[in-house]
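User: I'm curious whether this sequence folds into something compact or stays loose and floppy. Could you predict its structure so I can see for myself?
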Amino acid sequence: MIMSNASYSQYHECRIGGDIIGNLTRGCVIDRLSRMRRQERTAYRRDRSDADDGGLGVSRSSPAFPRGGPAGAGGVGGAGVGGAGAVGGGANDESASSPLNSSWREKICHWSFNVIDHFDLSREVVAVSMSLFDRYLATRDDRCDGSTALLASLTTLHIAIKVHEVRKIKLTTLANLSRGQFGPKHIEEMEWTVLNSLDWHVHPPTSMSFLSHLLLLLPPQVSDSSKEDIYALSRYITELSVCDSSFVEIDPSAVAFSA
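Assistant: Here's the prediction. I'll summarize afterward.
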């Protein structure tokens, strides 16, 4: 997954607040990192307490995703529209309000990456989408039926694309990926629910955004080729962490620094 000079340069010039690299001073980068750290500790914490979350009523120690056990019938994946895969499967009565299985979350994440890759969008969109998804489920104590989980994943991906991408995916196209289980109206209604549950906090600092800023602090003695290698490997590691539920409670800045 090694990136070319053009990819490295384009990513940094387009993703860091629209600024050109040469115009960012070291102090500016450090200030941005400080602000992003403050955001992840306050508005974008997954386990915010009642005092911090504007009345959402989320416990500070939200339960982690369970390592095993069913969370509804059906599954995520399979052949889908345009080769991007499809979200499918429903929930039975026995699975209503069950904790979300970690394997389901992983399948949802991989499906999201497949969709983004198919439409040639930024892979960071998936990190944003999963942040919205995880924080929304936290407002429900991580309990939901399979149908709600699938609809929420479609909706958070829709929100992430709409807010963070110039290119868009039509809502009808995204709805079609559910194999007819959900229509545009279902996604629009869930969008309103998600946005209100999250107090409209839809710009989470991701591990990838932390990573791109941290790379700017590398000493000038580090060659461009070395920076490219560091960037490619670190980005790969951060993308792996997005799909692993054990990283849900870990601050994105810690993931980026470790990568």
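Summary: Residues 224-243 form the longest helix (20 residues). The chain has a mean pLDDT of 77.
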